[in-house]
Amino acid sequence: MLAISKGTSIDPDSDDGYNVIVGGALFIGYADHPRRLVQLPRLGIASTAAGRYQLLARYFDAYKKQLGLHDFSPMSQDRIAIQQIRERRALDDIVSGRLESAVTKCSNI
Hints:
Blueprint lengths: L1 H5 L31 E3 L4 E3 L9 H11 L6 H14 L3 H5 L3 H8 L3
Antiparallel strand pairs: 1-2
Keywords: Hydrolase
Protein name: Glycoside hydrolase family protein
GO molecular function, one term: hydrolase activity
């Protein structure tokens, strides 16, 4: 659900969204977050969002340290997403099928 809402998993050339940079470009290799600052003039912002869940580079750095991650691989991206859901206290809602409650709890991240 998150990947589709972020528009990452719909690109047939992507690695199921795990290698998508904000704006639609793809990156190669998972050794680290791509750290590319992309200008988004339509939105009036610049962003480093990347990966299936469009994680900013600064958040990757924090979660990399917290979770002991070694790369920006699909597994690492998934672990970060689960940790963010856990931090919003929505994991039990997901497991129990209370998706509306989980979405509400996670809507600001």
